[in-house]
Amino acid sequence: DYFAYTGDFVTVAGYIDNVVSKLSHALSIYGTNPSLGFYGHDVRVGTTFEDPSCVENQNAYKMLVLRLCLEVSTMMGQLNRTDLMSKYNSTYHMLVADLKADSNWYKTYGIHASADAINAQVPDDDEASIMINSTGFLVPSQRVSYAPFNQFFIVSALAKANKIEEAMTAVLDAWYGPISLGATTFWEVYSTEWLNLMGPNDPPINGQNGYTSMCHPWAGGVTKFLTEYMLGIRPTQPGFISYDILPFVSKQHNIYKLKGEVQTPHGKITMKYDHYAGYFHVQSPLGCVGRLGLPRYLGDIDQIFIDGFSVSEEGLLSFSKITKDDRYVYIEGLKPGDHVISFVHSEDKIRSIPTHDQAQSSYAGEFLYNDTTTQGNWLGKYGKSGYYLFRYNSSTADTAQLPSYISSVNYFTPSGVGNPRFLQDTNANVSSDPRALQPPSSSSSSSSSSSSSSSSSSSSSSSSSSSS
User: Dmax of the chain from CA atoms?
Assistant: First the structure.
């Protein structure tokens, strides 16, 4: 991205050895299920540091390596390092071919690994369609990752699969919620359920580690996405030597007017677009040649005028040619300067853009009640069949009495998390805390060799403010 936006050949060339070293290491552990440190906060990618080497992350890591091979190959070609361009291009295609030798290669992929695969251009159109339709991309309760950082890759994958409408809906799902709650900076994590739990300017819901950062730049990928896919300005050669402006318009999202600017090494590229007024104003600096797109999926373009000249008239020196596909009429080779493009589109030839019916979130479980009174006094109300109190007696010992239908409880134990303990009413430091858990009247203890900050699904009580 840095190279694409700046065209800084000198700096990037100085990092070639560094890039090659990192990619060589990645390739050396590709497909070996390496120990991974972190992928995101979402439970589907290991819940922060609990299980970062889970299957989903192993699949996703392979896709990131493939994407890196592809993008580094392209960059090396632009740097005139044809040896490295050829090397990584060949590596990419060899690994993809090996992967696809199994026709079911993507069947275990969830939404995060699928997004990374699509961004790496690994699946063909049919495979990408299956991934999008089967892994939750189109389901509101599933397409929002708990970390907006990961959400950027999900919306990027939808855009690359030509599902811009769905991508914009996913953007609203993930980023408009915090704005409606009063956010003026990007939050580290966010769940759509928070809209039902918080009011404007309330403190955020605590994350797993006990707090939530409300000023987290890593969640800001949406700004790049909106610039490149809604405003439509993106470089096609390093440093904007050439660029595209392909504005996105939408009936579903009521987007018909756009304006914005992007800073380039040569100066600013600015644009204003009004679809129904038939107006497109572009200013670009010396050193930049552009390709503009007039959206035709809301109506065919019948007439185009560039700087007052009809495209059928001679004397047009600002562009080289007009082309089109199902989505845009393209004005190619737009030279630097101040240009006004006006156009007429046919309302009686409305084209449809791919959309989907918004699926409704549904859960199999039935909500019974929220217990805010029991707190730590669980005896006689919970755990009648059995219980499991993690780290109750010490930092290494659990207290449990399992029912006959549960033989054992196993849970993941991360390293480096200290020695978490449950609140106990026998602990002098917390005995006055109403959340402190009563000691069971009869119990058996089972020891564990290491500490854990997680709990098990079979636990009947917790150290939170209410037992459930």
Answer: 95
Token pair in block for residue 244: 């595209």
CA atoms of 230 and 249, how far apart (whole Å): 8
Q: Which helix (H) or strand (E) holds 354?
A: none
CA-to-CA dists, residue 335 to 282, 285, 412, angstroms: 10, 9, 59
Q: Which of 214-228, 285-299, 388-402 has the lowest mean pLDDT?
A: 388-402
pTM of the model: 0.80
Mean pLDDT of 352-370: 61
Amino acid at 335: K
Sheet holding 321-324, edge to edge: 233-235, 242-245, 289-295, 328-334, 321-324
What does the alpha-carbon distance between residue 376 and residue 75 come to, in Å, rounded to a whole number? 59
- Minimal CA–CA distance to 227: which of 318, 337, 152? 152
Quick check: 460 pLDDT over 80? Answer: no
CB-based contact 274:345 (threshold 8 Å): no
Q: How far apart are CA 122 and CA 92, in angstroms?
A: 9
For residue 220, the tally of other CB atoms under 10 A from its CB is: 15
Distance CA 106, CA 99 (A): 9
Contacts of 334 (CB under 8 A, 6+ apart): 282, 284, 289, 290, 291, 292, 318, 319
Task: Quote the CA–CA distance of 142 and 44 in Å, as a whole number.
Answer: 10
Two tokens, residue 111: 């939404």
Judged against a pLDDT cut of 90, whether residue 264 lies above it is answered with yes
Q: Which of 255, 279, 281 is nearest to 270 (CA)?
A: 281
- Residue 103, sorted as left (phi over 0), alpha (psi -120 to 50) or beta, turns out to be alpha
